[in-house]
Design brief:
Largest sheet: 4 strands, antiparallel
Number of helices: 5
Strand content: 25-35%
Structural class: alpha+beta
Amino acid sequence: MRELEGSADHLVVIGRGRLVADTSVRDLLAAASGDRVVLRTSKGSQAMTVLAGAGATVAAADRDAVTVSGLPAERVVAVLTEHGLPFSEVAAQRATLEEAYLQLTRDAVEFTTPPGRAG
């Protein structure tokens, strides 16, 4: 799907004989990506508190990284700056076409591997 992502402008996705999506690649990727942002900061717990107070959903990703949903990257930077919290990275997460496709068609598949059995 990586090749398709770079060459296609518009997608029509059909699952179980039904139209699942008729959209541009850009719009599909934007919808699948949401407002997920990865934040790197030495003040993770404080950043999580102020971002949650600003309406974000936050989760610790590792020792110095936090995943933020519900606020765009620009707003994350503004909130952190308002509170004087340091950060070394704020990066919007972009879904791949494969991730977007799997998310879009998760309820439209006919055949799946039973849980616990590898294909």
